[in-house]
Design goal:
The protein is α+β, with helices and mostly antiparallel strands and 235 residues long. 49% of the residues lie in helices and 17% in strands. The protein has a domain of 94 residues: SH3 type barrels (Roll), CATH 2.30.30. Helix 1 crosses helix 2 and helix 2 packs across helix 3.
């Protein structure tokens, strides 16, 4: 009897373990899609709530009993395209310069405006600027290593005045789990270890806080997989 009870318990544990594994497998599939839909839907609602109050009631579908999600987004896109087309012309550039001259005379507003304009121009710059390679740098002290991305070779005043011999690299060291924030470091090229993994795989490693580790092969082929019950990824 004891043997049968133990066997029954073992079968129940096996069933629940299998059920748990299946649940997490489904969660891995559903969670990214659900979060993506949620973020997009939230962004649409925010833009709609911001734009629709500026549109006369007679041009809004809600006035006639219809609700169209994204109507404000469409209006915003059309308006932005029209502003962009106007700005390209002589009259538009003149108006923009006149407006910026007015802003430049406002002590507090000009600082906020210039800062925001610089950020937007950097993010939305049409010239594609991508990180060259993923690398390792010793940070925040000797003996501790962090993943960083090589932005470019340092030039100008920093290269001339930095107390380092030889080539200096400008590297971006991202924070975990938000890689959009981080630190700009100027590191001697001899102190930088280049990695074979792609920038995308290195970004996954940073975002996942080390849980998604690219497999390393001597021939340079790299594939990413999450660490889990099947064993840790090769380092």
């Amino acid at each position: 009897m004891d043997g049968r009870k133990e066997e029954a318990r073992s079968e129940r544990r096996g069933f629940f373990a299998s059920l748990r594994s299946t649940f997490f497998t489904g969660l891995v599939v559903i969670a990214p899609a659900a979060l993506t839909i949620y973020i997009i839907w939230t962004a649409i609602e925010i833009i709609d709530n911001w734009v629709l109050p500026w549109i006369p009631a007679k041009y809004q579908p809600a006035t006639y009993g219809y609700y169209i999600p994204g109507y404000g987004v469409v209006i915003f896109l059309i308006f932005t395209i029209l502003v962009g087309a106007l700005t390209r012309g002589f009259l538009g550039r003149t108006l923009i310069r006149w407006g910026e001259d007015m802003v430049a005379k406002m002590p507090v507003v000009r600082s906020v405006y210039r800062g925001l304009k610089q950020i937007v121009e950097t993010v939305l710059s049409q010239s594609e600027a991508n990180f060259e390679k993923a690398c390792l740098v010793e940070y925040p002290r000797k003996g501790l290593w962090a993943i960083a991305f090589v932005a470019t070779r340092t030039k100008g005043e920093i290269w001339h005045k930095a107390p380092a011999e030889g080539e200096i690299l400008s590297v971006f060291l991202p924070t975990t789990p938000n890689p959009t924030s981080g630190f700009l470091l100027f590191v001697p090229a001899d102190d930088v270890i280049m990695l074979d993994m792609s920038v995308e795989d290195a970004a996954k490693l940073v975002i996942s806080a080390g849980l998604v580790v690219p497999e390393y092969h001597p021939d340079g082929a790299v594939t990413a997989r999450p660490t889990g019950e099947d064993g840790a990824a090769n380092g």
